[in-house]
Design goal:
Layout (H helix, E strand, L loop, with lengths): L2 H14 L2 H20 L3 H15 L8 H13 L1
């Protein structure tokens, strides 16, 4: 079964499941849900915006994906 089909079945189930089952499902995935949301704090978003602005204004030089890959391969060999 594809991930999309699983998502659709889960959505349908959650819409009609009894409260007790919803709470049980949530208890299983609660920590993962919270962990996924932690990274997007105001401080993190501000830092991303600052870095994007620095790049766009030429204050920092970016690297292409190929340059990054070459650097990683070089470190593995070295």
């Amino acid at each position: 079964m594809s991930t999309l089909a699983i998502r659709q079945k889960l959505h349908q189930y959650i819409e009609t499941a009894h409260d007790k089952k919803i709470k049980a499902i949530f208890a299983i995935v609660e920590d993962e849900i919270e962990d996924a949301n932690i990274i997007w704090t105001d401080e993190f978003v501000s830092e991303l915006q600052k870095r994007a602005d620095d790049f766009e204004n030429g204050r920092v030089k970016g690297r292409t994906w190929q340059q990054v890959r070459r650097g990683v391969k070089k470190q593995k060999r070295g």
